[in-house]
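TODO from last week: model MFS transporter.
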Amino acid sequence: MPAGAPPLDPRRWKALVFIAIAQLMVVLDATIVNIALPSAQHDLHISDGNRQWVITAYTLAFGGLLLFGGRIADLAGRKRAFIIGLLGFAGASALGGAAVNTSMLLGARALQGVFGALLAPAALSLLSVMFTEAKERAKAFGIYGAIAGGGAAIGLMLGGVLTEYLNWRWALFVNIGFAVVAAAGAIAVIHEPAGTRNRNRLDIPGVLLATLGLVSLVYGFTRAESNGWGAGITVGLFVAAAVLLFAFVIVESRVATPLLPLRVVTERNRGGVFASLGLAVIGMFGLFLFLTYYMQVVKGYTPVVSGVAFLPMVVGMITGSTQIGARLMTRVRPRLLMGPGFVVAAIGMLILTQIKVDSSYPALILPALVLLGLGMGTAFMPAMSLATHGVQPRDAGVASAMVNTSQQVGGSIGTALLNTIAASATTSYATAHLAQVRSPQAAKLLQLQAMVHGYAAAIWWAVGILVAAAVIAFVAINTGHQGGPSASSGDGEEEVADLPIPVVAH
């Protein structure tokens, strides 16, 4: 540690435990409710038209308010934002678990999104400002990256167990335990380094434009999935999003204290991370959905068995993140981890394009999931670290929020885009083979074959998207490894491994 650098917090590793618990809660909540949704719909008599709002209410609030939440963490203090976000998320989860009607559940889910948008950037920013020594930072981000990558799959498994053996309400109540433990730990052991808070005024026009623009974008993809890409409301939402976000960029380039300083996203390496990470998430989220339906509808797995079937991918992510990414991050350039990582994940996805109704789990799905996990874990870990590496302390929260925003928007795009492709391919296949149906059994088989054909068609797109993520990582990211001197960040700061590097993200 260089002379004059602030001493390392002796409780930083204990703090990492509670930051990781909070991160796990936020990430698994994105999928745990999906498994519980059919039971909740039946119990609360939610209409088919309204059931999507159980997911959309959360993603709209979360995705739309992330930049705002990141800047609030910068202004008000990251530890404070972290604790408030945890307690608010727990309260909203309790409200949703106790819901007696549709409105109460949808309101609770929106409230979860609001507090999640505060909590997620605060969690990553705390991690970034507490771990500033290169090798320790690599280990900490390895753990964090594994949780970020594997949490969604863990949510599928946990959702299946809770729904099958308790009831759907526990998919929400379970957050209370995570949040209370993390908040108590944060109060006891987390210490936010002095001098890293942003004291500028809040950019209200930027907040309004960013929030409305991101909400329009996320909602546009939601409507595209249900109404079609050419529907008036879909096109209108995309046009509104483009206008609002363009206006946001203009405002941010001119105001004295912008919500999102453009230096955060225009710096080559961070821009490359945001783009490649967003693309990778597009492929991953669609895959979770397809494989969940494949296992339960086509193969007849129970929710619990379906969740367990994803475990090899979780193990692969943890291995890739902690044993490959973390060990090599201080020795290897980030693009030489991210690019090959996305390529390995693409190979895993390529194997899944061969999926059939009677495909063997051990022979086809298992190796594909392992490769996906290893590739994504290896790529996510340096991506999470690099996205906040070298960021000025006052911008840590909003840089972290951009990591979350790229993931949230990527997830929304992935779900809508790949679902639409799958649905179209399914319909085409069924129409082309309908004349061959001679019995009810044949009709049922055709239905399953068409469904799986649709999944395979969409997975081919996911392969291409992951390859594009790899190309962007190779071409756009040119910084040196994070254990020694590297290229300038473009922020007017030197990025040197032994320089304290505060950052924020989710």
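Done. Residues 203-258 form one domain.
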